[in-house]
Amino acid sequence: MHWYLTKDGDEYCMDLFKRHYSYREYADNREQKLFVGPGEKVVLRTWKADAMFVWRKFINDSGEDGINCAVFRNESEAKSSTLIQEADAIADAIWPNQRHYTYVNAKKIKSTNPGYCFKRAGWRQCGITKKHKHIVLEKDAK
Questions:
Q1: What's the maximum distance between 2 C-alpha atoms anywhere in the chain?
Q2: Helix %, strand %, coil % for the chain, to 5?
Q3: 133 confidence band (pLDDT: 50, 70, 90)
Q4: How distant, in Å, are the alpha carbons of 62, 81, 83 from that of 6?
Q5: Buried-most residue among 4, 84, 99, 105 (CB within 10 A)?
């Protein structure tokens, strides 16, 4: 197992998050201290702090149901699909019988196969958001 439990605002994860395509600075230039929104959350990082994974359970306005992978960033030597499978197992232990889902903005990543690492981990594409900005990937509940 590569993951260690940490907290929202972990300084090493914040550094990783700032390199994630979803990172946005506050308009008023305040220092950002947290990187996960409201709701139940689990923040995972590797010992070397070269990968992070964030699970979030919240009321989703888009109608998606389940546990959301809010952030995944891997700069480690470990395979992304392995890290995702391990994070899936942790989420299954905390929230049994829940669907896992995430959004991938194909325009913001370098891959020609958006979500490939999730697909290798057993996830599948299940749709596109209403505004056609993100691909929705899911893994069925166990």
A1: 43
A2: 20, 30, 50
A3: low
A4: 28, 21, 16
A5: 84
Query: Has this prediction a pTM greater than 0.85?
Result: yes
Return d(Cα 46, Cα 112) in angstroms, integer: 27
Residue 14: how many CB atoms within 10 A of its CB?
A: 17
What is the Cα–Cα distance from 24 to 92, expressed in whole angstroms?
30
Secondary structure letter of residue 66 according to DSSP:
S
3-class state of residue 48 by DSSP: coil
- Cβ atoms 70, 115 nearer than 8 A: no
Cβ within 8 Å of residue 63, ≥6 positions away? none
